[in-house]
Each structure stands twice: as C-alpha cells, then as structure tokens.
Write a structure and sequence with these properties.
- By secondary structure, the chain is of the alpha/beta class.
- It has 2 domains: about 5-105, Rossmann fold (3-Layer(aba) Sandwich), CATH 3.40.50; about 120-265, Rossmann fold (3-Layer(aba) Sandwich), CATH 3.40.50.
- The protein is built from 9 helices and 8 strands.
- The protein has helices spanning about 15-25, 45-60, 75-80, 95-105, 120-135, 160-170, 210-220, 230-245, 255-265; strands spanning about 5-10, 30-40, 65-70, 90, 150-155, 175-180, 200-205, 250.
- The chain has a 4-stranded parallel beta sheet, sandwiched between helices. The protein has a 4-stranded parallel beta sheet with strand order 6-5-7-8, sandwiched between helices.
- Helix 5 (about 120-135) packs antiparallel against helix 6, helix 6 packs across helix 9 (about 255-265) and helix 7 packs across helix 8 (about 230-245).
- The longest helix is centred in the N-terminal third of the chain and has 18 residues, at about 45-60.
- It starts with a strand and ends in a 7-residue tail after the last helix.
- The model has no long low-confidence stretch (mean pLDDT about 90).
Length: about 270
C-alpha cells in the first residue's frame, strides 16, 4: 500500500503557480500517494488563519505533517499562516525573490497576481483570439478558414487533437485548428482535398489502438467505433497516410498535453505570441 500524505497549494491569487511548481516536485516521489488541495485567493490575515486551522486539523487527522506550498507575497498574510510546527512549509516566493533582488540590485515590486492577471492587454487579446479560433475550427469546422491557422492537427477521432489545440491557444496564443481523419479519407494516394493547400501546416497525432479503445468506449461503449479491430484499422491507415504524405506526427499515448504541445511547437517551428 502506498504511503499517503496531504499536500496543500496555497496562493494569494489563482494558485496556478503553487500548483504547477508543487506538482512538479511531488511527481518525483512515485511511492507516495498525495491528497492534493488547492486553496486560492488567500489575501488577508483572516483567510490565512482559517487555512491554518484546516492544515492543523489535517495534520492531526493524518498523523503526518502536511506539505504546504505557498505562493503568497504579502508578508503579513504569509506570517498569519502559522503552521510551521505542524506542517512542512515550502515558500515558493521567498525561496527565490531575495536572491534575485541581490543579483539585480533592486527590490521586487511584490505585487500579487502579476503572472496571471490580464496585465498586457495585447497579450490577453492574443490569448482570447487564439482560443476562439481553436473552438471555431474544431473537427474541421469552417474548413475555408484553415489558411488563417498557424498549425492544423490531423489524426483519427479521439487522438487528442481538441485538447492540444486549446492548450496551444491558451498557453501560447497559437491559432490551432484540427481536422479528423475518417475511414472515408483512407485508401487514397493523396491527402483530403481540404488539406492539400495547407500541407505545410499539418502535424499529426496518433495513439495506440488499446488506448484509443479505452477512450472511445467511454463515449460509445460496445460499438464498432470503439472496437479494437476498428481502432487498429483507423490508426494504421492514418499513420500510413501521414508517412506517405510526409506529415510529421507523434504518439499521444504516454505524453502529457504539455509535452505534446512543446513537441509540436519545436518540430513545426511555431512562434509563441506570448
């Protein structure tokens, strides 16, 4: 039975920074099962006191010290989270800010929310525009507008195209469209007609048949669509087409969405908008 520990990610804003860094560290301890809890918008001593009580109660219930990842800028709020005796506190802000101040020869502004606020209005609009584009060009919708895409993801249904497009848009402002390869496209010596003018923008996603069966079965159990034979046929045909047409592709089976997106950006030489 794996060892279990509680982990809190506490922030004065959204909690994204504390979550991201904390999760990255915790993945290095595979033998431990972590009960994770994110608590955002802790921006006053009163809220900090409430959180302290929750952490102390968890420590007593677990009989182990919780792990507390903090991303809080206000020293008064940070001081109010008085759990150092019952928890391991990892201050993600103070751990790095002081050495940066020393190196740069200036004081940090210590302003909460700068990394995840709207901030630069141009950047914000790039993000919204890219997300709207990806949503409007999902599964081959509006094919006449594919020329406006930075990249067009192709692959069989449920191979990870839609979430990857949205991640590229949200994180990097990349206008990503996707086009599903269906049995009607297979067995032909050329790409689908709508994709031919945009060959240079294509990037393929594939997946193992076994994993595709699992995903499709959640949507349409006990169907031909989700059967192993059909999934194997579609994947083999799609990969053969991509090889024949020199469309680069990667498998999404054992990759996180972050890894998939980074591979696409690097391989397709895409430009991040922020």
């Amino acid at each position: 039975m794996p060892h279990r520990r509680s982990a809190f990610f506490i922030s004065d804003r959204t909690g994204i920074t504390a979550e991201s860094l904390g999760h990255t560290l915790l993945t290095q301890f595979e033998a431990v099962e972590f009960k994770r809890e994110t608590i955002p918008f802790i921006d006053s001593p009163d809220k900090a006191n409430e959180v302290s009580q929750r952490i102390a109660a968890r420590a007593q219930a677990d009989h182990h010290r919780p792990l507390v990842f903090l991303s809080i800028i206000d020293p008064g709020v940070r001081k109010a989270i008085a759990v150092d005796e019952c928890a391991l506190v990892i201050d993600l802000f103070d751990s790095f800010i002081s050495c940066l101040e020393d190196e740069l020869g200036m004081h940090a502004s210590r302003t909460a929310g700068k990394s995840h606020g709207i901030g630069n209005e141009k950047t914000y609009h790039h993000r919204i525009d890219a997300v709207n584009f990806s949503m409007n060009h999902d599964d081959g919708l509006k094919p006449n507008a594919l020329a406006e895409a930075d990249v067009i993801l192709v692959g069989v249904s449920r191979s990870g195209k839609t979430p990857t497009c949205l991640y590229l848009a949200l994180q990097y402002g990349i206008r990503a469209a996707n086009y599903p390869l269906t049995p009607e496209d297979f067995g032909k010596p050329v790409l689908p007609k709508l994709l031919l003018p945009h060959r240079h923008k294509l990037f393929g996603l594939t997946i193992t048949p076994e994993r595709l069966v699992q995903i499709r079965s959640e949507r349409r159990p006990n169907s031909t669509y989700a059967s192993l034979d059909n999934c194997r046929f579609e994947i083999n045909e799609a990969e053969a087409m991509m090889r024949q047409q020199s469309v680069p592709f990667i498998s999404t089976t054992h990759k996180s969405i972050e890894e998939i997106a980074s591979t696409i950006i690097h391989s397709a030489h895409l430009t991040k908008r922020f």
